[in-house]
Amino acid sequence: FLRETDEERVVVALNASAAPSRIDVLLDVLLDGAEGVLVDLLNGGERFPLRRGAASLPLPPSGGRVLRLER
């Protein structure tokens, strides 16, 4: 899910499974197709580039990510 304020946008992704998973994050409507980076605030600052407003990223088993959008 997405939470946003005037200053920042944060995407939260959860995986309740015992197996690793992948998620496609599609922010193209919000970003008007712009590029950016999602920075994982929970997992050591891992960075996932957005290409045309979209990114595919792994989710750990029984875990999640809190991703801040940087443009």
Distance between the termini: 19 Å
- What does the average pLDDT come to? 91
The helical percent reads: under 10%
User: What strand order characterises the main sheet?
Assistant: 1-2-7-4-5
Return the structural class: mainly beta
- Assembly type of the chains comes to single chain
In this structure, how is the largest beta sheet organized?
5 strands, antiparallel
Shape: globular
pLDDT < 50 stretches? none
Describe the structure.
The chain is built from one helix and seven strands; from the N terminus they run E-E-E-H-E-E-E-E. The protein is mainly beta and 71 residues long. The longest helix has 4 residues, at 28-31. It is globular. 6% of the residues lie in helices and 55% in strands. The strands form two sheets. A five-stranded antiparallel sheet has the order 1-2-7-4-5, with no helix packed on it. It has one helix spanning 28-31, and strands spanning 2-4, 9-15, 21-26, 36-40, 47-50, 54-59, 63-70. The protein starts with a strand and ends with a strand.
